């Protein structure tokens, strides 16, 4: 089949001939994206591959999908249905028309509670499905690690399973029916016995068994007998259904089970009917510690005798990477330990049990304790603690991409599965193959079903390593076959393993695959090159998508990238896992949550940066610092820093965005006026404060608002910040502290506390003085936060160099015991950005400074009983639990930088201890303001939409509550969108100390 030739990297986006999808645009309610930038954002998934699609269709409904498939049938265009794009074997990339179900085709259509079934569209996310099923006490059994962003259509295409497969099986075991459209444009509902009701389905079914029946014995012999196997088409299941059918009929045959695991190569799944299981009434997790992987695997079979719902392995490689990750470090602290607290964990096994009663659950845990009585064990009966502990396991795969060095733990033979009783010997021989080729591996995943994810360390740019990768894959295939196991137990074949299927199954079965595909897709237009007629596993690698390698050239950067092992590694850290596409919990990624657009997820931005900096978007060789589409992709990044902690690979998009903008300014000779003015917020605020209250009076005039709109692009719906008399002036006018010999603390006068909200500073000073400290507030200058976030890095570096010089002089003279901050965004500049920027000061000295920086709240709480005077907070009515009870509820919304870098635990802990049940910490993500971001006309509506996702509804639910928010942007957003005033937590703590 001859496909249309599209423009290449050096060509204009205006093709010589009209794009083959252009005519479809007017026929859909949804979107069609044909420009090269958007196409390349869909050229990768979570695998090692990069293949540029023909175009991307984002349907508004299933009707749009139907019309797209019909159109492609008329034009002979290949099709790739895509969900969350989290495939690890390259199934979700192709030179085809990609149909992205994830944005809009995500509806739950019908629940039958009595029959325990549900009908869904293919784009529904597993976690969202289970959330909607929870009120019925039901859930979908297969529970993949990517549940927060995995689409059911993708799970069906991949025949996914997850941690509880020993209890609930694979997706195919829970699939009743599929709504499918074939490449030729015909639509079918496949379910059990459909061939007895529909003559066309009967014809298809007979054609399939004309191929299967003659090779039945080979299928019986070759197909693995263990639970976890997803290699090729499910011919073994169909054969079993045929044998169970009434003689002369196909009444037990369900062609939906042929499509499940077919990786989109047979047709397009529009929707599905799924069987559901009851939510377990009782459940408990236990985790056991082991000195190494081998010891853990030796224990698995005995543990399986206790009938667990899951047994999952995590090795020391993942554990050590988690310790280096701000988000995941806390999960390692939940693990059991040997008697030596300094001993490193070699491996852990997660063992979870479900039961109908608490007594039955306790019996199973007791059996586990008897079985593994010599191993450290910790129980997690609390649901919240259990969920936190599981997050380490769920982060295993993406954490591995944080490993430094050229060699990475690549996905290519990571999914083999054998009978669990053979697992210890299998892994020993597996390890021997890897070590024979001079490398090592990481180990994690589903020990309960013998499906361990083994990730050898390979440099895909190194020809000898690529050769070793191919040889390891072949030898492991032979090893798996010798154990009667499965080449893939979960992740499928895709571009990685399809070429190994004939080695694994033999030619007759692979010929059957080809002939079966021809029944449903005679022109080979459905996800071509997967399962049938595959290419080499080393074609279209992400690091070498075409004939030449996609290298990141040397760049004179403004930031240091030591922690990322160099700028090139920082740019390539995103592995495509798609954790940034989650819609609930944490903060990442606020703009994706509001837009549901791949382009505006952290993954989309990471891809855009990698493509631009490696020159793949440029007409000329070298980095494309001024690529207009890349700037548009970065434009909706709020620089919230959530990805720095919540992304298991620690992709710091805020840092990379600032670097890219600064490099672009360097190339074109400067920044635009609006960015420069917003970057000088300290000077503007200082001037407004000096002129207050006149400045506030003048700001109320329409002409002032007009000037702000013209010069700064401020949206007319946004209120301007008010000014107040400077906090520095107030401190200078105060009488000298009587406690001159008291320990000194330095309060950093940020641009907002000093000039806009000095009352917060006065509360902080009062609180610290009540604790017995001498407080100094020197005017040190700006922390550089606004300049950093806007990419004005040369200006930021000059400003910060001056601020640090002044700070060092004061530290030498006054000898404060701590540097304290009130504004979280400024705090993050001091402890994070200062350490990364290439400043004139010694990096070690800057890091030492950062270690002395605390937020006022954290300092007050962390020092506890060590203050010169004890922290005495006024008590109100005391409840039966010993905690104070307040008539008025208090809610707390943390700042994004605070949550990303040092957490809110201390503040929340203190307020919880004092306010008891009257205190509610919100999990409401980002407020959407993000400093200058939310002010501008270009961003106001997105800023509002982000706030309306979680924060505004939460405030509405607590309409009478006192609101605490440490971030000035958060307080501003709350005031603009709800009319309510939020307090800084320090103001509230100081108030309690006076009561």
Report on this structure.
This protein has a seven-stranded antiparallel β-sheet with strand order 15-12-14-13-17-18-16, with helices on both faces. By secondary structure, the chain is α/β, with parallel strands linked by helices. The longest helix has 22 residues, at 793-814. It folds into five domains: 22-100, 2-Layer Sandwich (Uridine Diphospho-n-acetylenolpyruvylglucosamine Reductase, domain 2); 108-278, Uridine Diphospho-n-acetylenolpyruvylglucosamine Reductase, domain 3, CATH 3.30.465.10; 280-402, Alpha-Beta Plaits, CATH 3.30.70.2190; 567-670, Alpha-helical ferredoxin (Fumarate Reductase Iron-sulfur Protein, Chain B, domain 2), CATH 1.10.1060; 727-994, no CATH class. The protein is built from 44 helices and 28 strands.
Structure in a nutshell:
This protein is of the alpha/beta class.
């Amino acid at each position: 089949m001859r496909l249309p030739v599209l423009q290449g990297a050096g060509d204009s986006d205006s093709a010589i001939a009209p794009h083959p999808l252009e005519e479809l645009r007017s026929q859909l309610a949804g979107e069609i994206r044909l420009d090269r930038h958007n196409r390349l954002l869909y050229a990768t998934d979570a695998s090692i591959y990069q293949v540029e699609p023909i175009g991307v269709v984002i349907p508004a409904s299933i009707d749009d999908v139907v019309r797209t498939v019909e159109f492609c049938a008329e034009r002979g265009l290949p099709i790739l249905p895509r969900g969350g794009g989290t495939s690890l074997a390259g199934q979700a990339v192709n030179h085809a028309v990609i149909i992205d179900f994830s944005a809009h085709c995500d509806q739950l259509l019908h629940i039958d509670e009595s029959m325990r079934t549900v009908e869904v569209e293919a784009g529904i996310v597993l976690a969202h499905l289970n959330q909607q099923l929870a009120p019925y006490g039901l859930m979908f059994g297969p529970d993949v690690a990517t549940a927060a962003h995995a689409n059911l259509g993708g799970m069906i295409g991949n025949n996914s399973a997850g941690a509880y497969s020993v209890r609930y099986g694979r997706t195919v075991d829970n699939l009743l029916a599929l709504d499918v459209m074939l490449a030729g444009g015909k639509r079918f509902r496949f379910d059990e016995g459909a061939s007895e009701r529909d003559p066309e389905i009967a014809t298809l079914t007979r054609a399939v068994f004309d191929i299967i029946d003659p090779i039945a014995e080979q299928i019986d012999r070759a197909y693995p007998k263990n639970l976890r196997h997803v290699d090729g088409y499910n011919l073994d299941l169909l054969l079993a259904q045929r044998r169970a059918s009434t003689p002369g009929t196909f009444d037990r045959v369900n062609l939906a089970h042929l499509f499940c695991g077919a990786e989109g190569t047979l047709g397009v799944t529009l929707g599905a009917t799924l069987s559901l299981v009851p939510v377990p009434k009782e459940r408990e997790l236990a985790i056991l510690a082991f000195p190494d992987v081998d010891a853990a695997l030796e224990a698995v079979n005995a543990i399986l005798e206790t009938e667990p719902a899951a047994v999952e392995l995590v090795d020391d490689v993942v554990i050590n990477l988690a310790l280096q990750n701000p988000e995941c470090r806390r999960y390692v602290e939940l693990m059991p330990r040997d008697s030596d607290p300094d001993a490193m964990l070699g491996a852990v096994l997660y063992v979870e049990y479900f039961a109908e009663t608490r007594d039955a659950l306790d019996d199973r845990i007791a059996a586990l304790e008897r079985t593994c009585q010599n191993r450290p064990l910790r129980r997690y009966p609390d649901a919240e603690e259990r969920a936190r502990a599981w997050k380490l396991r769920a982060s295993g795969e993406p954490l591995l991409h944080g490993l430094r060095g050229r060699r990475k733990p690549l996905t290519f033979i990571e999914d083999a599965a054998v009978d669990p009783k053979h697992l210890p010997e299998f892994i020993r021989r597996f390890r021997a193959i890897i070590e024979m080729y001079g490398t090592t591996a990481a180990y994690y995943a589903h020990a309960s079903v013998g499906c361990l994810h083994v990730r050898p360390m390979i440099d895909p740019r190194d020809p000898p390593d690529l050769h070793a990768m191919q040889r390891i894959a072949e030898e492991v295939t032979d090893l798996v076959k010798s154990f009667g196991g499965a080449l893939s137990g979960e992740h499928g074949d895709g571009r990685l393993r399809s070429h190994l299927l004939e080695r694994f199954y033999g030619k007759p079965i692979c010929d059957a695959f080809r002939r079966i595909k021809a029944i449903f897709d005679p022109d080979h237009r459905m996800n071509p090159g997967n399962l049938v007629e595959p290419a080499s596993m080393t074609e279209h690698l992400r690091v070498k998508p075409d004939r030449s390698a996609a290298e990141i050239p040397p760049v004179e950067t403004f930031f240091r990238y030591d922690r990322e092992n160099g700028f090139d590694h920082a740019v390539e850290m995103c592995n495509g896992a798609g954790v940034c596409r989650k819609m609930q919990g944490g903060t990442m990624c606020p703009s994706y949550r509001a837009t549901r657009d791949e382009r505006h997820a952290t993954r989309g931005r990471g891809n855009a940066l990698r493509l631009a900096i490696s020159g793949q978007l440029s007409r000329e060789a070298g980095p494309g610092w001024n690529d207009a589409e890349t700037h548009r992709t970065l434009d909706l990044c709020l620089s919230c820093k959530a990805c720095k902690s919540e992304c298991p690979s620690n992709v710091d998009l805020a840092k990379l965005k600032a670097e890219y903008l600064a490099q672009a300014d360097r190339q074109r000779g400067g920044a635009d006026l609006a960015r420069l003015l917003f970057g000088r917020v300290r000077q503007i605020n200082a001037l407004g404060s000096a002129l207050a209250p006149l400045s506030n009076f003048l700001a109320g005039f329409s002409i002032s608002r007009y000037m702000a709109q013209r010069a700064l692009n401020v949206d007319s719906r946004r209120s301007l910040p008010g000014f107040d008399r400077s906090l520095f002036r107030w401190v200078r006018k105060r009488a000298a502290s009587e406690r001159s010999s008291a320990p000194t603390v330095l309060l950093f006068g940020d641009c907002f506390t000093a000039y806009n909200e000095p009352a917060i500073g006065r509360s902080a000073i009062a609180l610290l003085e009540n604790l017995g400290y001498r407080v100094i507030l020197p005017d040190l200058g700006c922390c550089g936060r606004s300049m950093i976030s806007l990419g004005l890095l040369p200006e930021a570096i000059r400003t910060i160099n001056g601020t640090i010089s002044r700070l060092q002089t004061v530290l030498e003279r006054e000898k404060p015991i701590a540097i304290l901050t009130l504004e979280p965004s400024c705090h993050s500049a001091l402890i994070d950005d200062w350490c990364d920027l290439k400043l004139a000061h010694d990096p070690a000295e800057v890091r030492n400074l950062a270690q002395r920086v605390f937020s006022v709240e954290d300092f007050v709480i962390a020092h506890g009983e060590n203050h010169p005077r004890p922290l005495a907070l006024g008590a109100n009515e005391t409840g039966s639990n010993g905690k104070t009870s307040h008539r008025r509820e208090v809610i707390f919304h943390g700042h994004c930088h605070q949550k990303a870098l040092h957490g809110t635990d201390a503040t929340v802990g203190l307020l919880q201890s004092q306010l008891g049940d009257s205190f509610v910490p919100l999990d409401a993500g980002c407020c959407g303001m993000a400093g200058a971001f939310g002010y501008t006309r270009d961003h106001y509506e997105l800023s509002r939409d982000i706030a309306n996702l979680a924060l505004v509804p939460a405030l509405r639910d607590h309409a009478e509550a006192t609101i605490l928010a440490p971030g000035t942007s958060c307080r501003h957003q709350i005031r603009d969108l709800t009319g309510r005033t939020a307090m800084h937590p320090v103001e509230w703590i100081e108030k309690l100390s006076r009561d």
